[in-house]
Amino acid sequence: MPIKAILTDIEGTTSAVSFVFDVLFPFAARHLPEFVLTHADESAVAQQIDAVRAESGEAGASPERVVEILLGWIAEDRKATPLKALQGMVWEQGYRAGQLKGHVYPDAVEALRRWKQEGYDLYVYSSGSIQAQKLIFGCSEAGDLTPLFSGYFDTTTGPKREAASYRQIAAAIGLPGEQILFLSDVVQELDAALEAGMQTIGLAREGGVLEGHETVASFAVIDLARV
Ligand SMILES: CSCCC(=O)C(=O)COP(=O)(O)O
Ligand SMILES: [Mg+2]
Hints:
Layout lengths: L4 E4 L8 H23 L3 H14 L6 H13 L5 H16 L9 H12 L3 E5 L4 H9 L10 E5 L9 H11 L6 E5 L2 H9 L3 E5 L11 E2 L11
Helix pairs in contact: 1-3, 1-4, 2-3, 2-4, 4-6, 7-8
The site of ligand L4RZE5RM has 16 residues, from α1, α4 and α6.
């Protein structure tokens, strides 16, 4: 069956790992403490603080202790849903103030635009929150790319290394897995998507092979007719 939709990862796939690690994460680490302490009583933030307490097992953690936990999670690149939600809120301030501009590889911008024009539906699945996904593409160096996308998925659907998450995404998109092509730089994510019946292509931007998956270094060489 032909591919009808493309589901793409962000970090290491459409966008440089260095942008996430050297720009986004340090920005969040710098601004998150004041953001959390200032907005702790607002419901959207309070809800995430409670989720940090639940996930860390520290039910009575003060807001200051919650900030310490969050900074530890940033340092270890933990894909914790409440951290990702709070990072998205902090990054929004940076993007709106013009301090951040989303990095998207030019080959990814070109291919995504072409695929959309050819009639493919495009979706995003990242550990970054849906808010953060809309920001990186909406405030990108190439302009607002959000009109290209038909939907966004994050860890509220499930972890990226579990097949069940991809089954749920296929059901939400309304297509059988075999008509969805998943792009990622992480072999465990590709394995999980394959197990759920999706087609896969690995992105190895520095070269190399993602074992068990067709691997390319750029979106420019992906030929959807051959998938
Ligand atoms: C949405 S940009 C921020 C990316 C992020 O926080 C992250 O953890 C990257 O995860 P990905 O699943 O895109 O590799
Ligand atoms: Mg990735």
